[in-house]
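[recover] target loaded
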């Protein structure tokens, strides 16, 4: 039959670099993300390295996680970092008021987090406490993290067993200040953030990448207020500016905030609403970018989507404050949609963090006692790895591409993106239609095509997911249905599936 999509990719016209940091992660002191997820403690029966779970680290290492955001989220703005250093048994305790109202023993603190980052081979992204912390705490924390030689905080760090500084670069200035981070108005937050950012110093050769806490969803006026404040810092005396990025957050759900929808038990209509809302991220990135362009036309500042992903009702019977949810093929498709949008906006979008890596919201892995399961979303991150730091390639449709009416709007049912690095091209294709195959014809111009290989993530039902009993129910398989005829690639992408192709070029 007729192709669903015919498109041209000019292999010799590479676009902006897709920062690997668009594949970043997020670990908050929330439910079982840290405690039970990353951290079991040194005395646990679960195999661990210095208290950190080995199975989780091994699984995540295969994703080449570029950065990990910590300690929150909402938790960041009630976290006092000095409570989390020194001998564990002597650390003060606190109540985690946002997440389950449970006691936090502070056993996982700065040293444990940075040890985790070293095991994962990832860059830390530390979020400071602006909501209830002081400028001095922020300043001391950065000194503790990054100062070499002899100084009060460097000495304290050495007393706690670490003489070398860690050299943290990504540094968040609070979190969701419009809500849990202080219920501030943008006009209040902006000067506070300038103050915290000023005293978050660069020590030695280290350069901080300061990220101002941004808007929720389509709150463009928040971004505008921040940009007005930030742009004035981009002067001659301080060419790097006060901030290096502005963030925003966007979550996908099928229902309303009070009843977000079930992770596993959803109707066809709920599926399509989910798809439509996931695709909305593209409009949001473009919208925030447009506001930034007005104040920073040369794109010095990055946009950081430092929380994204699906947010469903918690699994029945679990603590509502722990945000524990299952993860199906639908979640995998949501992730694939986001990455296509990220790749297309790589000129401004420099960092993104899925919420959250283990046991919370759209997780990569779910743990239960000493068992661990990789989710369908995990596999999308793994299959898309070759886009890290590759240059984006535009996919130009010839004529139309397939659409469907959802909630009164026409939305695309096929999502694509492509990139190139070191002579290798990676193409991602997502067929969102659950009933029909998508015939795709790609005309690849500007280079000769060599070996082609493919993998596919699919499921017989879009609600399929992985469990301890069936850990690989949804997992990638070889995909060899690609026909190559000179410069033309033709393939049928099965319903509700995600495909990645690797092409050698010459
Ligand atoms: O990721 C869960 C929560 O969502 C974060 O703590 C907060 O920043 C957001 O509202």
């Amino acid at each position: 039959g007729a192709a669903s999509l015919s498109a041209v990719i000019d292999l010799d016209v590479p676009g902006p670099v897709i920062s690997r940091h668009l594949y970043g992660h997020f670990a908050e002191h929330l439910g079982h993300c840290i405690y039970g997820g990353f951290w079991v403690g040194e005395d646990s029966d679960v195999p661990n390295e210095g208290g950190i779970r080995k199975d989780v680290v091994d699984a995540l290492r295969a994703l080449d996680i570029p950065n990990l955001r910590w300690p929150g989220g909402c938790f960041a703005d009630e976290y006092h970092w000095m409570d989390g250093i020194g001998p564990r048994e002597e650390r003060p305790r606190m109540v985690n008021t946002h997440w389950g109202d449970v006691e936090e023993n502070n056993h996982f603190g700065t040293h444990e987090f940075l040890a985790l980052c070293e095991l994962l081979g990832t860059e830390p992204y530390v979020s400071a406490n602006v909501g209830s912390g002081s400028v001095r705490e922020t300043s001391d924390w950065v000194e503790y993290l990054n100062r070499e030689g002899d100084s009060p905080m460097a000495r304290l760090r050495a007393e706690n067993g670490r003489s070398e500084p860690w050299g943290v670069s990504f540094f968040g200035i609070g979190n969701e200040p419009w809500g849990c981070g202080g219920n501030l108005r943008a006009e209040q937050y902006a000067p506070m953030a300038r103050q915290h950012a000023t005293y978050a110093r660069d020590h030695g050769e280290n350069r901080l990448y300061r990220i101002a806490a941004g808007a929720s969803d389509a709150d463009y006026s928040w971004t505008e207020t921040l940009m007005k404040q930030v742009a004035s810092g981009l002067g001659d005396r301080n060419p790097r500016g006060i901030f290096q990025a502005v963030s925003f957050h966007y979550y996908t759900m099928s229902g309303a905030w009070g009843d977000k929808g079930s992770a596993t038990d959803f109707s066809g209509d709920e599926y399509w609403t989910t798809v439509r809302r996931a695709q909305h991220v593209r409009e949001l990135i473009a919208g925030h970018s447009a506001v930034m362009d007005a104040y920073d036309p040369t794109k010095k500042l990055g946009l950081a989507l430092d929380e994204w992903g699906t947010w469903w009702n918690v699994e029945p019977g679990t603590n509502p404050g722990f945000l524990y949810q299952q993860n199906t093929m639908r979640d995998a498709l949501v992730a694939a949609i986001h990455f296509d949008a990220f790749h297309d906006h790589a000129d401004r979008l420099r960092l993104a963090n899925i919420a959250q890596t283990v046991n919370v919201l759209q997780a990569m892995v779910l743990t239960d006692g000493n068992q661990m399961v990789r989710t369908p979303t995990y596999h999308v991150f793994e299959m898309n790895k070759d886009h890290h730091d590759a240059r984006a390639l535009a996919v130009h449709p010839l004529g139309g591409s397939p659409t469907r009416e959802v909630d009164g709007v026409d939305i695309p049912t096929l999502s694509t993106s492509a990139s190139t690095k070191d002579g290798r091209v990676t193409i991602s294709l997502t067929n969102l239609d659950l009933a029909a195959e998508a015939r795709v014809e790609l005309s690849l111009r500007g280079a000769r095509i060599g070996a082609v290989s493919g993998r596919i993530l699919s499921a017989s039902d879009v609600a399929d997911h992985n469990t301890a009993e069936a850990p690989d129910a949804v997992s990638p398989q070889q995909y060899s249905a690609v026909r190559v005829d000179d410069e033309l690639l033709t393939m049928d992408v099965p319903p509700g599936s995600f495909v990645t192709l690797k092409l050698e070029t010459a």
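[recover] notes: DSSP finds nine helices and 27 strands in the chain.
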